[in-house]
Specification:
eight-stranded mixed β-sheet; alpha+beta; about 350 residues
Length: about 350
């Protein structure tokens, strides 16, 4: 069957694009290799800028009803154990954290309810000119293709678009029981072995992310096991690469969204926002018949924000220097508060032409 738009990947970027195109009457096919609900390596934090998009998609109330943590503070912890607290209570709307398996399922169901044809457990195996798609469940064709399949994009690989990845670090992520006194907060630990990010996600659970060079992972996991009373059999999900060059987001009949287009350091809490916003922008440009214009809009989406992500990357790459900077920041807490609010509350909501009107 022929579709107006085919989307590869059912995460926030793909689901947002599918919903926006389907509600406008386009014939939409969304292919997802996993079966939802499924877990995803992620910090699980939802930036306040996401709420405008979630409301536009008609899922704001559904997301609020999911088990979540309303994050109240960020705690930066140095290798020496010194902590610096930055409150988040002044942010409106606030930042929350919740498991991706819950959030992504709501978004994918919304795309399906709005008329998109969603095929789960369907992997893309080949792409031909004119967007003839060969999958594990048959062949399809489409006028326009959206790659929303992540940093290791199958679309990008099959079309030879993926740049060389930098394999300097590995990320690990798991969910575990929260310590009794943890509360609703984010902790960022800068350790000699690497970095650890911890966030309450509701339901008595925490999200725990570790980042280190491969040679330091065992030691960092040992620290995490001791700090959070993890069982030796605790399961971990892995993500790599953590760094990868950007791909030109608008090509002939092809738009790339989310991590398929640009990978940002995944520890600033903005990844889900960029996924939703880029998915919505791609859909708007398809509906307007202006695919080339998506490139400029995509660049504006990240403008003024990449320096924050580069700063986070530097902190993760050089935890000893970050720990030293944190010690200095104890005497100048206003600087850290300003940077934290730039990360958590600084993303500009996407202003696509119809983004202010909720999907019916």
């Amino acid at each position: 069957m022929h579709y107006d738009v085919a989307i590869i990947g059912g995460g926030p970027a793909g689901s947002a694009a599918a919903s926006w195109c389907a509600q406008a009457g386009r014939r939409v096919l969304l292919l997802e290799k996993a079966l939802f609900p499924r877990d995803k390596v992620c910090g699980d934090c939802l930036n306040p800028a996401c709420w405008q998009i979630l409301e536009a998609l008609g899922v704001g109330e559904a997301v609020r009803s999911l088990p979540h943590a309303a994050l109240r503070e960020v705690v930066f912890v140095s290798a020496r154990g010194h902590a610096l607290r930055v409150p988040l209570s002044g942010l409106r709307p606030g930042e929350i954290a919740l498991p991706r398996r819950l959030l992504d399922a709501v978004l994918l169901d919304r795309a399906r309810d709005l008329g998109a044809k969603v095929l789960e457990e369907t992997a893309l195996t080949a792409v031909e000119a004119g967007w003839l798609l060969t999958t594990t469940r048959g062949k399809f064709s489409a006028e326009t293709l959206i790659a929303a399949d992540g940093r290791n994009s199958t679309v990008g690989r099959l079309l030879g678009l993926l740049p060389t990845a930098v394999k300097d670090r590995v990320g690990l992520q798991t969910h575990a029981d929260a310590p009794a006194d943890f509360g609703e907060r984010v902790e960022m630990h800068f350790l000699p072995q690497g970095y650890a990010g911890v966030a309450s996600i509701g339901g008595g659970l925490i999200n725990l992310c570790l980042v280190a060079a491969p040679s330091h992972l065992v030691e960092l996991k040992s620290w995490a096991g001791s700090r959070f009373a993890l069982e030796p059999t605790q399961g971990w999900r892995t993500i790599a690469p953590l760094a990868r060059g950007a791909v030109r987001p608008a090509q002939a009949g092809l738009l790339l969204v989310g991590d398929a287009a640009r990978v940002v350091e995944p520890f600033t809490g903005e990844g889900i926002y960029y996924a939703l916003a880029s998915g919505l922008l791609a859909a708007e440009h398809i509906l307007a018949g202006d695919l080339p214009g998506y490139a400029a809009a995509h660049a504006r989406l990240y403008q003024g924000r990449l320096w924050v992500n580069e700063l986070a990357k530097a902190a993760v790459l050089h935890p000893r220097l970050a720990a030293g900077a944190l010690e200095i920041a104890r005497f100048f807490p206003g600087i850290l508060r300003h940077l934290t609010r730039r990360v958590v509350g600084g993303a500009e909501p996407v202003t696509a032409p119809r983004a202010s009107a909720a999907v019916a």
